[in-house]
Hints:
This is DNA-binding transcriptional regulator YhcF (GntR family). The chain is mostly helical. Helix content is 61%, strand content 5%.
Amino acid sequence: MNAMDILMRRWRLETESTVPPFEQVRLRILDLAASGELAVGTKLPSVRALAADLGVAANTVARAYRELEQAGVVVTAGRSGTSVATGGDRLAAKVADAADAFAAVVRELGVPQAQALRIVTAALERG
């Protein structure tokens, strides 16, 4: 199964969503890379091919790829295309570090756990 098949399997852009299309694409690739469904080294579809398949502008996919590259999830090698650079390990480590720092502040300030969790949930929902 190629990367396009994996990306599109049981998934479509939600046109009525408040989440912008580039973010939906970014999150889909991020989830697939973190789960291992898109293995390290897997070549992603070209920006134009994925945009055509999704029915969005090429800039939408290009922005998702660019943000994933800045996060170290994918790497672009010019004409060779874009491929998955890392699975979820590096990302999970960054999230765990941020969670540890947040927990330290919560403990230091004496914020109850339930309130801290509500704060995190609200921050995640705000995007």
